[in-house]
Design brief:
Elements lengths: L1 E3 L2 H13 L9 E8 L6 E7 L2 H14 L6 E13 L1 H9 L10 E5 L4 E3 L1 H6 L3 E2 L14 E2 L1 H12 L13 E13 L2 E9 L2 E4 L6 H18 L10 E3 L4 E2 L5 H18 L2 H17 L1 E4 L2 E8 L2 E5 H18 L5 H15 L9 E3 L4 E3 L5 H17 L2 H16 L8 H10 L6 H12 L2 H6 L6 H17 L4 H4 L2 H26 L3 H4 L5 H4 L12 E2 H19 L3
Length: 559
């Protein structure tokens, strides 16, 4: 629901709506109001009454008294709750597999009255993993962070809880709510999508509108991270507005690439011009000649690394800028980067070397599969622009090596990009089989994955484009029967659309969620990794935007 109404009309309409959600089994009537400005973490206040109307009247009176400068508000009504013992609470908390996957609010009745929405619990890090937790490898083993809890109670209730012992004697309730978000003169019904995500409703009727909103606002978010000089703000841990300090050359250039894709799609010249500045800054600050070759370097402290992936995405971003603008100023850099890849990162047996140290000694023969697909994809883009057959010969060597060595086992999104791109220039049965296996052999996992995991959408969009090529390939029936092809194509397209929807409702920092963090204005409409302390790095935005922009163009066209 999305309505434009006056403040009084908003309250009247919302109360009528909330009445329909009142659960007769819940004896108490509790409304929760979250309100604030984008400059700081919102305030949260509970309103109790013997009847729904009594609680609502208290809330409405308080809401009308708020400054007209309040930018947004959210109103929750507790509609479900379960009473638990303290021991049961600890067991439930401990059973949560991923960090921040809290799906309930928590309230206490007794010597002290305390209440916390699930958004308050996660955005203030009231529950944290144990020291042995490794993201994606083991269970979070959540427990209360006493200092964070006490600090938030002090901010919210203006009292200092010297101890949490009152949990032992309080009545403890886990609850769920029905909520609406008020943004200036509009209000949105919020939906609980599970895993802690309670955002505005995204459904078939408004999906395209929400997709466009997320792309437009998310692109502006990434643009805002790029300063005038061309360097990014690398990222945030938003609970306490903590900057992520390191810098990474791969993520710099790949984020420039994503910004260029968005700028092209949105026909936004400002994005394209700022992306140029990012390219210039990258080559001025992240590149160097060493022993006659041209490298993109990463440096942390005294440690220097030269990575195949960094070479690749510098080419990729340069090629994208050239394709959009017809400005060929980066041709020479693309050629020298490619020559260095062939000379330094590719063996006589067409195996790749992933990382050299600052003295050009091999540091890691293999580090991460991304680098291989990035290298092939980027050089194919360079070849398309420069028509340099020596570049295509390198690409052919890599493609042949990947197919012969069953690289489809990695199910990598960059390899999906690469094989689809390669098929523009040369088609073989083996390439199509490789591309289908890369997507289909892990598609059940991609369909059921609970995290936003944006690279999955990137993989599937590239695979979907490949299936459209296969559909008109003159040897298709030698590869796959008509029935099997239609089943495979439909499967890829269906899961692709599911992933696009899932990303939007599990990884987009809508204002109705951003308001609970310390500096909402910095993070609104960015993209986050919930299970990694809501991490918001530029590469998170990059992967979300690349997948969503390409999905939007493929599915709805570029109009």
């Amino acid at each position: 629901m999305n309505n434009v109404v006056s403040k009084s009309q908003t309250l009247n309409q919302l109360f009528e709506t909330f009445e329909t959600y009142k659960n007769a089994e819940i004896k108490t009537s509790i409304f929760i109001l979250s309100y604030g400005k984008s400059a700081s973490r919102c305030h949260v206040k509970e309103f109790y009454g013997r009847t729904l109307k009594q609680s609502w009247d208290k809330l409405a009176s308080f809401y009308r008294s708020l400054s007209i400068n309040i930018e947004y508000a959210r109103i929750d009504l507790i509609t479900e709750e379960t009473k638990v013992t303290y021991e049961e609470l600890l067991e439930i908390i401990n059973s949560i597999n991923r960090n921040n996957y809290v799906e309930f609010g928590l309230r206490l009745e007794g010597f002290k009255k305390r209440s916390f929405l699930k958004e308050e619990i996660t955005a203030n890090a009231l529950l944290v993993p144990d020291k042995n937790h490794k993201i994606g490898q083991n269970k979070a083993n959540l427990h209360f962070d006493t200092a964070n809890y006490k600090n938030y109670v002090k901010r919210k209730y203006n009292v200092l809880d010297h101890t949490m012992n009152y949990f032992l004697t309080s009545d403890i309730y886990l609850f769920k709510t029905k909520a609406f978000f008020i943004d200036e003169n509009q209000f949105y019904e919020l939906k609980d999508y599970g895993f802690g995500n309670q955002f505005r409703i995204v459904e078939e009727d408004n999906f395209r509108e929400m997709l466009d909103l997320v792309i437009h606002q998310g692109s502006n978010y990434l643009l805002d991270q790029l300063d005038e000089a061309g360097e990014f703000i690398y990222g945030y841990f938003p609970c306490y507005d903590r900057n992520i300090r390191n810098y990474n050359a791969i993520r710099h250039f790949s984020s420039i690439y994503a910004l260029l894709e968005a700028g092209e799609f949105l026909d936004n010249q400002e994005m394209i011009e700022h992306s140029l500045q990012g390219l210039v800054w990258g080559f001025e600050n992240l590149a160097e000649e060493n022993d006659g070759d041209y490298f993109i370097k990463d440096q942390i402290g005294e440690t220097i690394e030269y990575k195949l992936g960094a070479q690749a995405v510098a080419i990729l971003a340069s090629a994208k800028y050239t394709q959009i603008t017809n400005d060929t100023r980066f041709f020479e850099k693309m050629k020298t980067l490619t020559r260095t890849i062939e000379k330094r990162f590719l063996t006589e047996n067409d195996e790749t070397i992933h990382v050299f140290d600052g003295h050009l000694a091999i540091k890691d023969k293999f580090r991460i599969i991304y680098y291989d697909g990035e290298a092939l994809f980027s050089m194919l883009r360079a070849y398309e622009l420069m028509k340099d057959e020596e570049i295509f010969a390198i690409c052919k060597r890599l493609m042949t090596h990947f197919v012969a060595n069953n690289y489809e086992k990695y199910h990598d999104h960059w390899l999906s990009y690469a094989v689809n791109e390669f098929l523009k220039h040369e088609q073989k049965d083996d390439y199509y089989i490789f591309g289908m296996k890369n997507a289909l052999n892990r598609i059940d996992f991609m369909e059921s994955r609970d995290t936003a995991y944006p690279t999955m959408l990137e993989l599937l969009v590239a695979a979907a484009k490949m299936m459209l090529k296969l559909e008109v390939y003159d040897r298709r029936k030698e590869i796959i029967s008509d029935e099997e092809f239609e089943a495979a194509k439909n499967r890829i397209f269906d899961v692709m659309s599911h992933r696009a929807y899932h990303e939007i409702v599990t990884g987009t920092m809508f204002p109705e969620f951003a308001m609970y963090f310390k500096a909402p204005y910095k993070i609104e409409y960015g993209f986050f990794a919930r299970h990694d302390r809501f991490r918001m790095r530029i590469d998170d935005a990059e992967h979300f935007l690349s997948g969503l922009v390409n999905y939007r163009s493929l599915t709805f066209g570029s109009e």
